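Lab meeting, item 3. Inverse folding demo.
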């Protein structure tokens, strides 16, 4: 057959060749013969030959596609997930497409089209050009914003020109434009109060100030230049050049800013709530920097820093500082995307946790990546857009009027002109002769003008400096700071909504109109330790600035927390005014006039041109722009035609939105649309918020610290974390002042009532921070713990919260109630003298089982490894709790149908323990409470269900449910005997379940932590002698003797004395009292209501009770240890631990050649975080990089 086919093909070629024309070329070659070799020189055959050849090739290649089940599944998966979660490559779709393409006719159009599509798809897998480079130079923000786009390094850099978004094509002669004063009177001048319709507070606009001054800083001389970067990089805090940045950095190897400091002197011209809010971000930076140094994720830092090696010190300082800045700026952005945008879109008032997130990687349907991290440059149009003077509150309006009357005592406010304003400012600063220089700027006059605007100049050293007005003897004069006093000396009184935090100069960056003293000029002073008069080594520059009447602590340099909180809470209580035409206070006439003139000098587009640029339809007439007949008619009379309406005036006087779904800020329609587009451009265009916002650059802890969290009780608020973290004594975990600071408390009463969750929140203005008294001596600790009448427990509220108001005997201060429940639980837990030892044997058995099943072998070695903390110590009490006490159905290899894994139950217990006993940080209070309530309900449900089934004497739903659970899970539930003893009492099932819940929570995470600390203590090389003694005790023939057991227990208690699982506990004074400290310490006075920290760690190292306290002595008397408290509230687990812990340690220390695993995995990942100055304490880092109160992992090795 093949020979026949070959013969036909040969015959076809003979006929074809015989019919060819002779070549006409001089070389005698046909076109195919003369083609370059690189093109493949296709052979010339007859049509029948080609047809047969194509059929043969197709048969040889096979079917292009096999529509089997695998192919269909691959296609379906691609259609469903290509642009969402991604294609599952296990379906081999791409390989099937390659096969299809290869089996198509070579050179065919369809083959080429599919090949092109494959190449395009693969090319679009990666960004082109690359978005970032490797190395610290590219990982960190520059001071001036350069290299945000690595390919266009000057894009968005400070001291670069503004961009122009829209080129105007509407020819309007300057002479045809309306007079700015007339425009103000007709369209902008406030005609009465109009509170913001959404109940937004003035603090939102204080925050807007930070956004605006991060982005806009117009140079006074070169009006086209923006002296700050075009990124949300918190330049008001960090500065916009390296020289300025150095003035706010401590540069001591810890990456810190000077306390309560910021770089931009323009902030001193802002209402006090603005710099106070910026101080929160300063504190947040320092919190982050300290935490980065503590965690030391890559083990590259030294603490204390290397003071003897300046180069190494600055390398470390730069690294910590820049990572902290990245994280802090991400927090800032989170506030923008969560709180700010949430208010703009009215999401917060709907209880909606959705957040506009423009930062993630997004692919189009054609696999094209939507650009991100490509940079940004702010424009003059948006400079004009962010001037929201209509929102100034009534008290702030009056305050600003008083200020202007003092500045211009001889002239009514309404008659002030721009020339008056410029002349008066120059006169106040330089004297009468200076006023004349403003008309014809000379170099000196230009510097004066710079000074008047608070803009940046250059000193002789080349460092950027900012000049501001100062006062001496009641008059202003030029200086580079403020002498003898403070700016914004605003009186703040609690429980009043009449805030004096002015937003008068909220968003103009054009400081000639804005950088005006926000207090009486005769009150403006400057610290005597300023830069110009400071002695060598004394604080200078930003470290000396003050505002709002605040005074820095001479030791720390910090402001008083209570006063900062007053400023912020006053701003939260003060409602903003509404956006609207005729809404700008008359006192700002001159400011608005200068804004109108500036827009004209920039040659910005018209209102309609800008609307078309952002994708909105042009207005056809003035009534469509603003339906108010009076506003529309005035605008028509002034501009003639809607297409002539100027952008600035048009945006300020446009009809505003009405509050409703998607509309909360309620500015004009054009502003509303533009700010959303700008928010996306600013954030998505920033490389450090997108492509380079990674756990590697921010560290694992930092990356998670700044993540959006919609479970925080504030519908995802980012600001709440900043406030609660940095003013923890001035905000409670559920206060609307902290959780919803951009709305007035009055507004949130209505909002949360409508959402039917009002009862979860606190609407009372938070009080002042209370200092905590520390008791450190053994005698003082004893006095506090044994006097339960004078010193009450502090965890009663949290325990009651998880038990429907009942509580737990450890939290009861009434002796009768306490003893009643204590007796009930003690008799049920320990019904016979042998029960305690039986529990010890059980713990030992479980420990051995877990060691055997959780260990893994190393290849080629007689060595096994084990995560002793995660897989043994954390799980041993879980088995006892689940199977002996509470009847929780565990899911293990032996019981695969169980409900909860071992690790899950451990996390339940650790969560509830943290909430009840360690819940001291308001920033985590909400999520701890919410999750603990869910867990408590679940666990108490198991116990109550078992007890109800036990008590049921006939067939019942509870009995059926309990029997089904046991049968279905196959759980070996040994808790029945214990629960039967409880059920025999006359107590309700609820009360019994609450008591069991208290017992199991107090018996797990802290027990596991104690075991981890004991082993960690003795695995240290410094404890080699003691470790060998313990190994001898547990492996000798007399290991079970009373003497050996006593010594083993002694070693255990000594480890916990020197490295305790509970460094201290809290009490609250119910009366005024004096605590008599021993050990040579002075008595401590406490007042009723004050909290006391009882330092168990320090008491257990008091040399008057523990001679030679740093020595391990296993023979010390047992009754001296205060490891679990003392007195009536001494933990029941103290005796339980003494019975079970030795049995576990026998098992662990019996492992042959037990030792730490090599490297960091063989150590507890922890860092020091001392409590109240004198009590050593440790925090732990979990496997995800989060900070935890409990250890999570430590690998050991042993031989077999």
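The presenter then showed the designed sequence:
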């Amino acid at each position: 057959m093949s020979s026949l086919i070959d013969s036909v093909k040969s015959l076809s070629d003979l006929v074809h060749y015989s019919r060819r024309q002779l070549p006409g070329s001089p070389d005698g070659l046909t076109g195919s013969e003369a083609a370059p070799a690189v093109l493949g020189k296709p052979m010339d055959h007859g049509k029948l030959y080609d047809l047969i050849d194509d059929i043969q090739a197709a048969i040889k290649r096979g079917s292009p596609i096999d529509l089997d089940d695998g192919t269909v599944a691959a296609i379906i998966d691609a259609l469903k997930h290509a642009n969402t979660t991604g294609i599952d490559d296990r379906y081999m779709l791409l390989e099937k497409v390659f096969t299809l393409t290869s089996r198509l006719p070579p050179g065919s159009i369809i083959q080429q089209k599919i090949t092109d599509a494959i190449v395009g798809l693969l090319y679009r897998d990666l960004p082109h050009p690359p978005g970032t480079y490797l190395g610290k130079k590219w990982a960190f923000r520059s001071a001036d914003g350069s290299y945000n786009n690595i390919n266009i390094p000057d894009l968005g850099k400070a001291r670069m020109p503004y961009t122009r978004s829209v080129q105007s094509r509407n020819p309007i002669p300057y002479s045809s434009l309306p007079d700015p004063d007339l425009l103000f009177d007709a369209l902008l001048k406030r005609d009465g109060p109009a509170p913001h319709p959404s109940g937004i507070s003035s603090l939102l606009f204080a925050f807007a100030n930070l956004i605006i001054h991060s982005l806009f800083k117009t140079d006074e001389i070169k009006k086209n230049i923006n002296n700050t970067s075009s990124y949300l990089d918190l330049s008001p805090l960090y500065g916009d050049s390296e020289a300025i940045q150095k003035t706010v950095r401590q540069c001591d190897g810890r990456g810190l800013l000077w306390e309560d400091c910021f770089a931009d002197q323009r902030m001193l011209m802002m209402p006090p709530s603005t710099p106070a809010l910026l101080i929160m971000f300063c504190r947040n930076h320092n919190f982050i920097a300290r935490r980065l140094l503590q965690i030391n994720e890559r083990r590259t830092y030294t603490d204390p820093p290397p003071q003897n090696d300046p180069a190494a010190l600055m390398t470390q300082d730069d690294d910590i500082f820049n990572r902290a800045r990245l994280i802090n700026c991400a927090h800032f952005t989170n506030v923008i995307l969560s709180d700010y945008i949430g208010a703009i879109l009215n999401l917060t008032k709907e209880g909606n946790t959705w957040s506009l997130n423009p930062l993630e990687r997004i692919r189009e349907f054609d696999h094209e990546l939507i650009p991100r991290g490509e940079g940004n440059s702010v424009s003059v149009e948006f400079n004009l857009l962010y001037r929201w003077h209509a929102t100034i509150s009534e008290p702030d309006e009056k305050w600003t009027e008083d200020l202007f009357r003092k500045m211009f005592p001889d002239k009514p406010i309404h008659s002030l002109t721009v020339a008056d304003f410029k002349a008066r400012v120059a006169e106040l600063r330089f004297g009468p002769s200076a006023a004349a220089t403003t008309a014809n700027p000379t170099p000196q006059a230009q510097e004066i003008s710079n000074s008047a605007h608070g803009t940046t100049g250059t000193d002789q050293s080349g460092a950027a400096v900012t000049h501001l007005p100062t006062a001496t003897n009641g008059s202003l004069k030029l200086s580079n700071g403020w002498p003898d006093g403070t700016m914004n000396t605003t009186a703040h009184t609690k429980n009043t909504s009449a805030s004096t935090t002015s937003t008068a100069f909220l968003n103009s960056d054009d400081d000639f109109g804005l950088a005006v003293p926000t207090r009486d000029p005769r009150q403006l002073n400057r610290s005597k330790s300023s830069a110009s008069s400071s002695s060598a080594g004394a604080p200078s520059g930003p470290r000396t600035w003050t505002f709002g009447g605040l005074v820095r602590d001479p030791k720390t340099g910090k402001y008083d927390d209570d006063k900062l909180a007053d400023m912020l809470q006053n701003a939260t209580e003060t409602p903003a005014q509404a956006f609207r035409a005729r809404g700008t206070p008359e006192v700002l006439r001159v400011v608005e006039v200068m804004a109108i003139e500036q827009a004209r000098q920039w040659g910005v587009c018209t209102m309609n041109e800008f609307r078309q640029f952002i994708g909105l339809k042009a207005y056809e007439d003035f009534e469509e722009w603003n339906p108010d007949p009076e506003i529309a008619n005035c605008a028509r009379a002034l501009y003639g035609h809607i297409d002539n309406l100027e952008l600035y005036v048009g945006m300020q006087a446009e009809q505003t939105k009405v509050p409703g779904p998607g509309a909360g800020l309620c500015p004009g329609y054009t502003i509303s649309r533009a700010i959303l587009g700008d928010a996306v451009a600013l954030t998505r265009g920033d490389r450090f918020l997108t492509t380079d916002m990674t756990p590697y650059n921010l560290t694992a802890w930092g990356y998670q610290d700044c993540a959006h969290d919609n479970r925080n009780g504030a519908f995802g608020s980012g600001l709440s974390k900043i406030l609660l973290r940095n003013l923890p004594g001035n905000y409670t975990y559920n206060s609307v002042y902290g959780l919803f600071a951009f709305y007035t408390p009055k507004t949130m009463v209505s909002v949360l009532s409508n959402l039917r969750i009002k009862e979860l929140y606190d609407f009372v203005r938070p009080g002042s921070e209370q200092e905590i008294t520390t008791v450190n001596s053994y005698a003082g600790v004893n006095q506090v713990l044994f006097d339960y009448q004078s010193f009450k427990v502090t965890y009663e509220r949290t325990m009651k919260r998880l038990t429907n108001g009942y509580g737990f005997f450890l939290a009861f201060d009434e002796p009768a109630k306490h003893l009643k429940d204590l007796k009930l639980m003690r008799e049920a837990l320990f019904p016979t003298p042998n029960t305690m030892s039986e529990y010890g044997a059980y713990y030992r058995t479980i420990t051995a089982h877990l060691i055997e099943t959780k260990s893994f072998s190393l290849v080629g070695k007689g060595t096994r490894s084990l995560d002793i903390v995660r897989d043994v110590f954390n799980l041993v009490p879980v088995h006892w709790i689940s199977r002996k006490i509470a009847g929780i159905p565990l899911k293990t290899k032996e019981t695969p149908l169980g409900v909860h894994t071992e690790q899950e139950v451990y996390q339940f217990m650790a969560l509830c323990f943290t909430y009840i006993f360690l819940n001291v940080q308001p920033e985590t209070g909400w999520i701890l409470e919410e999750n603990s309530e869910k867990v408590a309900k679940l666990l108490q449900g198991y116990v109550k269900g078992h007890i109800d089934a036990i008590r049921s004497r006939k067939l019942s739903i509870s009995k059926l449910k309990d029997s089904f659970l046991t049968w279905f899970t196959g759980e070996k539930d040994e808790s029945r005997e214990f629960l039967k003893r409880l059920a025999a009492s006359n107590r309700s099932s609820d009360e019994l379940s609450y008591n069991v819940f208290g017992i199991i929570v107090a018996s797990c995470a802290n027990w596991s932590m104690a075991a981890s600390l004991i082993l960690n203590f003795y695995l240290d090389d410094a404890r080699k002698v003691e470790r060998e003694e313990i190994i001898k005790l547990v492996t000798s023939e007399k290991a079970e003797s009373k003497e050996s057991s006593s010594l083993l227990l002694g070693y255990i208690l000594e480890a916990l004395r020197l490295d305790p699982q509970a460094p201290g506990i809290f009490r609250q004074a119910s009366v005024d009292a004096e605590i008599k400290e021993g050990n040579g310490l002075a008595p401590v006075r406490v007042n009723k209501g004050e909290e006391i920290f009882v330092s168990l760690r320090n008491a257990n190292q008091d040399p008057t009770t523990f001679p030679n306290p740093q020595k391990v002595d296993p023979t010390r008397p047992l009754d001296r240890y205060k490891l679990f408290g003392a007195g009536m509230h001494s933990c029941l687990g103290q005796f339980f631990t003494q019975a079970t812990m030795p049995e576990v340690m026998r098992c662990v220390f019996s492992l042959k050649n037990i030792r730490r695993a090599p490297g960091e995995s063989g150590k507890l990942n922890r860092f020091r975080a001392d409590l109240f100055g004198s009590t050593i304490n440790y925090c732990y880092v979990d496997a995800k990089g989060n900070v935890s109160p409990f250890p999570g992992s430590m690998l050991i090795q042993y031989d077999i």
